[in-house]
Amino acid sequence: MRIAFVIYDRMTALDFIGVYDPLTRLRTMDLLPDVTWEICAYTPEVRDIAGLRFVPTRVGESLGDYDLVVVPGGFGTRELAEDAGFLAWLRTAAPCPRKVSVCSGARLLGRAGFLAGKRATTHPDAFEELRPDCGALVEDQRVVEDGDIVTARGVTAAIDLGLYLVERIVGHAIQERIRRQMDYPYGA
Predict the structure, then answer these.
(1) pLDDT tens for each residue of 45-61
(2) Segments making up each domain of the chain, as ranges
(3) CA angle 126, 128, 129 (to 5 degrees)
(4) Residue 120 contacts residue 138 (beta carbons within 8 Å)
C-alpha cells in the first residue's frame, strides 16, 4: 500500500500528523510491512501556520500512483482553493482508490472536483464554504466516507481519521493495537 501525505504552506500540522501517526504505525509496528509513504508537496519548502518547516520527499510529481492520498486542512487552503496550478496537481490523484481530507482540506478536494454530489464533512466553521463551492452534501459527523472519499472534521479529528483508516485497511483488532500503543483513549 502506497500513501501520499500532501503538505503545503500554512497547513495545520496536527491535521497532517494526526493521520500520519496511526497510518505509519502499520509499518513501524510490523503490522503491515509493505506500507510505504511519501510526503508530497507542490512546492519544495513548506511551513505550517506557525512556521514549522516540513521537507517534502516528492515535489510536484503526480499523485496518481498512490492507494491513499491525505490532504490536511489549514489557513493555506484559502489561497490554494484559487490556485489553478495546485488544483491541477491535486487532480492527478483522480485514479487513487481513496482520497482523504482533514478539516478544510475537504475544500481542496472539492475545488479539485472530487466532492461533487458526495457526502463530506469539514471543520464546522467551513461547512458553508463546502456546500456551494464544492457541491458537497455536508454532514455534521466526525468522519464521513462516501465511495472513494473520506473526510474528517477539524484538527483533532485527524487522529480519529487515522485510526478509522487503519480499521478500514486491516480491521478492528490491529486498529485497537495501534490505538492502545498511541495511548489514545477513544475508539475510532
Answers:
(1) 999 999 999 999 999 99
(2) 2-182
(3) 65
(4) yes
CB atoms within 10 A of CB 107: 26
125-183 confidence digits (pLDDT tens): 988 888 777 788 999 999 999 999 999 999 999 999 999 999 999 999 999 999 999 99
Q: What are phi and psi of 34, to 5 degrees?
A: -85, 5
Which cell numbers hold the place of 16?
497532517
Given 40, 96, 103, 134, which residue is catalytic?
103
Q: Is 134 a catalytic residue?
A: no
Report d(CA 48, CA 179) in Å as an integer. 26
**Could you give the maximum distance between any two Cα atoms of the chain, in Å?**
43
Q: Is 146 exposed, middle or buried (0-12, 13-18, 19+ CB in 10 A)?
A: middle
Exposure of 138 by Cβ count < 10 A (0-12 exposed, 13-18 middle, 19+ buried)? Answer: buried
| CATH architecture classification, 2-182 | 3-Layer(aba) Sandwich (3.40)
CA distance 24 to 165: 11
